[in-house]
Design a protein that fits this description.
about 250 residues; alpha/beta; eight-stranded parallel beta barrel; binds 2-phosphoglycolic acid
Length: about 250
């Protein structure tokens, strides 16, 4: 069986209708160069562009998903988006627990556990992000922090639901900084996460690496057996760069 690698784009709070048109036109031009047999390409635009992008890429095999959602299904929660709404839009996945959600919007492990539980109960494929801050790495707390983030995230979640889960390891100090983790650091942490996840479930949960992934380092990162794919921020906004990342083996 071919092992599918996941290449996921997180646009964060970027792009507009015009740039999306150009982006998708370029993607269409590159279509014949992409071997979709061994890749799963995910794109996550801001909420307001989800429906537009989803319709625009209808005949292209890419998955479209949201960057966040709330843990309640409906009600008086001004400004929030429900997992049911994501399903209603026919989306393919959602990202939960991105470090910007944790650190800028103060989403705690408890909030993220509620979110993860709700999206998985709704059978939505979920990329759940974990990662240590620089001070935590420097004080040798990486493994402790990651174990705690995983333990807290999985609390009271039926293990059968974990088949719809993808983990993204994103060291906070490597996000948007141009500083990516070294190959040895990625290997060490991914191997640990892989082993730790077995505490909860037998199946292999895919593990992505994120943090300053770019055309220059994709090949080395993907050369690691313990890396099932990547979550790309900045470099995913430029289709010329993103396509080089998707086509990393060439
Ligand atoms: P970056 O972002 O590639 O710009 O470092 C990665 C992410 O935040 O998912």
């Amino acid at each position: 069986m071919i092992r599918k690698r996941i290449i996921a784009a997180n646009w964060k709070m970027n792009m507009d209708f015009k740039s999306i048109d150009t982006y998708v036109d370029k993607l269409r031009n590159y279509m014949n160069d992409i071997n979709f047999e061994n890749k799963d390409v995910f794109i996550s635009p801001p909420f307001v562009y989800l429906d537009y992008l989803k319709k625009k890429v209808k005949e292209i095999p890419v998955k479209i998903g949201a960057q966040n959602c709330f843990y309640e299904e409906k009600g008086a929660f001004t400004g929030e988006i429900s997992p049911l709404m994501l399903k209603d839009l026919g989306l393919d996945f959602v990202i939960i627990g991105h470090s910007e959600r944790r650190n800028i919007f103060n989403e705690t492990d408890e909030i993220l556990n509620k979110k993860l539980k709700k999206v998985l109960e709704n059978k939505i494929l979920t990329i759940f992000c974990i990662g240590e801050k620089l001070s935590e790495r420097e004080s040798d707390k990486t493994i402790e922090i990651l174990s705690k983030q995983i333990d807290n995230a999985f609390m009271n979640i039926n293990k059968d639901l974990l088949k719809n889960l993808i983990i993204a390891y994103e060291p906070v100090w490597a996000i948007g900084t141009g500083k990516n983790a070294t190959i040895d650091q990625i290997k060490e942490v991914h191997s640990f996460i892989r082993k730790y996840l077995k505490k909860f479930v037998e199946i292999n949960i895919p593990i992505l690496y994120g943090g300053s992934v770019k055309p220059e380092n994709i090949k080395d990162i993907m050369s690691l057996d313990v890396v099932d794919g990547v979550l790309v921020g900045g470099a995913s906004l430029d289709m010329d760069k993103f396509i080089q990342i998707i086509n990393f083996e060439e």
